[in-house]
């Protein structure tokens, strides 16, 4: 019976994965799963997941093909069909429900990689940073009282009482002796350290609306999912800017809007300081993602390009610029960026994101290099 259940579970997981594959572009574009994400799992709404079931009808109405009626007459409860599908309230369940299933972020990343044909990343530099960790995964008969395993101690004492005939069910007293004591113990293992960092930069001036920020947030969810799968974990930093830039937490990153001008060089300056002081390129695989609607104060371009060329591009695995279309932004920066650097740096990737439907293709462009 257990083998049959396990087989059914595997089959169900295959069906779920197939449904996710079929609807992946919709999930990527609409960001349906971001609000359902917790530490290790994400809840996925799956439409039309057909599960075989019995449907009981009324007895006593004749056999197969018997009874009054002409070809084309609706069959089943409810009598005649009402125009437009509108009818009286009923008690039967509907067929259009969504079913939510949990999937690990690793499984989701694997599906994303398969569907977008993303190559596995080849880390640069010191990509195997490890640190010795103590893992409590064994039991021994000696140790400090702070590590005493009460449940195992009680069970060993109980077995001793039963084996010696001293256990009385009417007076179930179990008294551990020194030989019954059990303690948690540990082994030293090499645990990989987080050695990949992602830096997100976004223009939060008045021209970036909530819709553009949602596009950025959805893209970042999938980028994080893929990179975390490749490295086993990532360090994430957030930088916002208008005319002035600062490092912030994730919530502030997506919920801040300023009304000032735009100086992209201010974001590059904060990013360069992070690389120099906290995320040295010799120890980290670094990924920078910048999102903007393409506005920048004209005289600031040269300052921005100088910082990008000297302090960022030579030191990162990837620098990706995603230009999010806004009804208020000029959209000129991507052209200036491509004109200045062109194909000079293979670490620089650009993509235009007109709307949510463009997220899918942008992610493939950003992550398709395998860097």
Draw up the topology in text:
Layout (H helix, E strand, L loop, with lengths): L1 H21 L1 H7 L10 E6 L52 E6 H12 L13 E11 L9 H15 L18 E10 L3 E8 L6 H22 L3 E7 L3 E4 L1 H6 L8 H14 L7 E8 L8 H12 L5 E7 L8 H9 L6 E6 L5 H9 L4
Parallel strand pairs: 5-6, 5-8, 8-9, 9-10
Antiparallel strand pairs: 1-2, 3-4, 6-7
Helix pairs in contact: 3-5, 5-10, 7-8
CATH topology label of the largest domain: Rossmann fold
- Average per-residue pLDDT, rounded, comes to 80
Q: Give the N-to-C terminal Cα separation.
A: 47 Å
Give the spatial strand order of the biggest sheet: 7-6-5-8-9-10
Number of helices: 10
* Quaternary state of the chains: single chain
CATH class of the largest domain: Alpha Beta
Shape: extended
Rounded radius of gyration (Å): 30 Å
* Share in β-strands: 15-25%
* Low-confidence regions: 77-85
């Amino acid at each position: 019976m257990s083998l049959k259940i396990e087989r059914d579970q595997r089959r169900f997981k295959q069906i779920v994965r197939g449904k996710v594959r079929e609807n992946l572009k919709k999930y990527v574009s609409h960001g349906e799963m971001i609000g359902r994400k917790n530490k290790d799992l994400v809840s996925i709404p799956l439409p039309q997941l057909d599960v075989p079931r019995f449907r009981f009808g009324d007895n006593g109405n004749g056999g197969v093909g018997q009874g009054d009626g002409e070809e084309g007459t609706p069959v089943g409860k409810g009598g005649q069909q009402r125009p437009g599908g509108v009818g009286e309230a009923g008690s039967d369940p509907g067929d259009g429900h969504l079913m939510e299933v949990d999937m690990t972020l690793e499984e989701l990343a694997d599906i994303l990689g398969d569907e977008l044909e993303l190559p596995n990343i080849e880390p640069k530099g010191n990509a195997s940073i490890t640190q010795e960790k103590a893992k409590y995964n064994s039991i021994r008969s000696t140790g400090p009282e702070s590590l005493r395993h009460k449940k195992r101690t009680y069970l060993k004492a109980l077995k001793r009482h039963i084996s010696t005939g001293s256990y009385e069910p009417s007076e179930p007293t179990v008294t551990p002796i020194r030989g019954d004591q059990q303690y948690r113990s540990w082994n030293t293992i090499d645990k990989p350290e987080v050695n990949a960092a992602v830096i997100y930069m976004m223009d939060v001036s008045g021209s970036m609306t909530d819709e553009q920020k949602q596009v950025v947030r959805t893209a970042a969810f999938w980028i994080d999912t893929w990179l975390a799968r490749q490295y086993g974990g990532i360090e994430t930093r957030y930088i916002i800017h208008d005319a002035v830039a600062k490092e912030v937490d994730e919530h502030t990153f997506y919920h801040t809007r300023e009304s000032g001008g735009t100086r992209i060089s201010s974001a590059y300056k904060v990013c360069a300081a992070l690389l120099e002081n906290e995320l040295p390129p010799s120890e980290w695989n670094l990924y920078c993602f910048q999102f903007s609607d393409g506005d920048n104060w004209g005289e600031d371009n040269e300052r921005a390009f100088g910082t990008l060329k000297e302090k960022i591009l030579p030191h990162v695995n990837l620098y990706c610029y995603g230009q999010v279309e806004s009804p208020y932004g000029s959209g000129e920066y991507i052209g200036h960026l491509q004109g200045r650097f062109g194909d000079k740096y293979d670490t620089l990737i650009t993509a235009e994101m007109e709307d949510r439907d463009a997220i899918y293709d942008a992610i493939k462009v950003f992550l398709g290099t395998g860097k």
